[in-house]
Amino acid sequence: MKTYYGLNKLKELKAPVVVLGVFDGVHKGHILILRAAAKKARQTKAKSIVVTFDPHPQKEESLYSLEHRLKLIAGSGIDICAVIRFNKRFARISAHNFIKDILLKKLKPGYIFVGENFTFGAGAKGNIALLKIFSGEYNFKLKVFRVLKKKGRVISSTQIRRFIKTGKFSLAESLLSRPVSILGTVIKGASVARQLGVPTANIDPHHEVLPPSGVYLVKVNYNKKKHFGVCSIGNKPTFGINKMQHIEVHILNFDKNIYKEFLEIEFIKLLRKQKKFSSREALVAQIRKDIISAKRLISSH
β-pairing, 111-115 with 241-251? Predict the structure, then answer.
């Protein structure tokens, strides 16, 4: 997938299939729209292009960072993604001008795919009814997708966000159709874990919603390969660090320098809650027990 930041460098496309939305979380409902657009583009020998917005127009806490969203959107088969910076200037564009100056003038769509609850333009006054009026006037086809429901409840990023924050992974996964994960960059830490004999990668998450503090069995996606690991989320009470949230992952059977690399961490199971230990030695003993517990779970699967 080719990504553009803004629309100025976007080359003219012939009747593309345009998909509009924030797609925070890229959950089941989003995936349905994205895959349908990619399929229609193949059928019509056109390009599929997602127009998304960053930061979140509703100023909500993002479920996933932009980098994570783009990775997942690309996985749905979309050809191009255009990221529009949602700033005060853009927020003042009227719904009519959004359609005329952005959709029609710059994108010239053959099809527009949207969810039924999509709104746009200043004050969110643009809606599906307005798009239908313009589709008849400017000869593009509009495909509107109904919101997806699970057990009678609308699938939403807000709901998934709540499940992740409370550690209800199975419920979150049922709405995402994939494991709960975070994307982050490996950064330099204090090397305490290495000194203790258990080297870890310190993770700077990309503005992602995090699970509760604890120690987890995880899968680490690095360089298109998956590795099992043990991930700790929380502060470091044993060392008197109680304010700052840390994420560290010990990757099993792995010995590479991955400083500054991106890692995606998939959460499988909570091994234990965070705890303050009486000494470093007690902490090391527990870490080794965590690794043994993780390996037992891996072998049982």
Answer: unpaired
Please state which of the ranges 34-38, 112-116, 174-178 shows the lowest mean pLDDT.
174-178
The C-alpha atoms of residue 213 and residue 215 are separated, in whole angstroms, by: 7
Cα(64)–Cα(254) distance, integer angstroms: 27
Q: Give the C-alpha separation, 254 to 263, whole Å.
A: 14
Per-domain residue ranges for the chain? 2-154, 180-300
- Whole-prediction pTM value? 0.87
Locus of tokens 């009747």: 15
Tell me which residue of 67, 128, 120, 78 sits closest to 95, measured CA to CA.
Answer: 120
Q: Which residues contact 184 (CB under 8 A, 6 or more apart)?
A: 203, 204, 205, 206, 208, 247, 262, 263, 265
- Candidates 81, 68, 66; CA nearest to 34 is 81
Which residues 6+ apart lie within 8 Å of 217 measured at CB? 228, 229, 230, 231, 268, 269, 271, 293, 294, 297, 298
- 2-154 belongs to which CATH class? alpha beta
pLDDT at 60 (0 to 100)? 67
The secondary structure element, H or E, covering residue 288 is helix 280-300
The CATH class, in words, for 180-300 is: mainly beta
How far the first Cα of the chain sits from its last, in Å, is: 34
